[in-house]
């Protein structure tokens, strides 16, 4: 995988376990990617500003500031870089905390290197790196538009800021207007791998989209009880 201009994909790996960062660095370099590492949060923020990575692998537990704070600082710089959280806690609340903070995905330690690479591929594929290759760049459903070239979403002329995963979820809904999509279909299409039945993540991201797309307006995203979700023009 490379960028549309042929340059290398840049990935920043952040973890205070040196042996782990070295293993991840080797695996990602094997993919042909340019990889930088950081062992603490403050260094990670500094490297992110200088390196401008296309994706970040970020441990939640760090010796100075935690991964959630790192993400907040990176986002404050205006970067929408996809983030894959690493966590040693196998608890749903911990995972949701990372996603709520703006992360795009997570893996729980211990994990396989193949799993990390696969998930990064999914995040990068869904990011702005490949959107410019779309044949039909603008999707329209009612007063909602999504431009796959500029990565911009508007409703009734108002710009709506979305994360990479929110964007992909909305794109999937907009490519299938008035069609009921099950949680399993959404997991398979948007996350591109078996999420182990964690359909709560779909519910979480649907709620995020509703707050951004439907807040204060006639709803476009609808729940079909027992079946899934659909998007249709406001009536």
UniProtKB/TrEMBL annotation:
According to UniProt, the name of this protein is Response regulator transcription factor
Q: Which residues carry this modification: 4-aspartylphosphate?
A: 59
Q: Which CDD domains match?
A: REC_OmpR_MtPhoP-like (cd17615), trans_reg_C (cd00383)
The Response regulatory domain, residue ranges: 10-124
Q: Per its UniProt record, what InterPro entries does this chain match? A: CheY-like_superfamily, OmpR/PhoB-type_DNA-bd, Sig_transdc_resp-reg_receiver, WalR-like, WH-like_DNA-bd_sf
Q: Which PROSITE patterns match?
A: OMPR_PHOB (PS51755), RESPONSE_REGULATORY (PS50110)
Q: Which UniProt keywords apply?
A: DNA-binding, Phosphoprotein
- Gene3D superfamilies hit by this protein: 3.40.50.2300, 6.10.250.690, Winged helix-like DNA-binding domain superfamily/Winged helix DNA-binding domain
> DNA binding happens at which residues?
136-233
Q: Which PANTHER family match?
A: REGULATOR OF RPOS, TRANSCRIPTIONAL REGULATORY PROTEIN TCRX-RELATED
OmpR/PhoB-type domain location:
136-233
The record, for SMART domains, names:
REC, Trans_reg_C
Q: Which domain of life is it from?
A: Bacteria
Q: What is the lineage of its organism?
A: Bacteria, Bacillati, Actinomycetota, Actinomycetes, Micrococcales
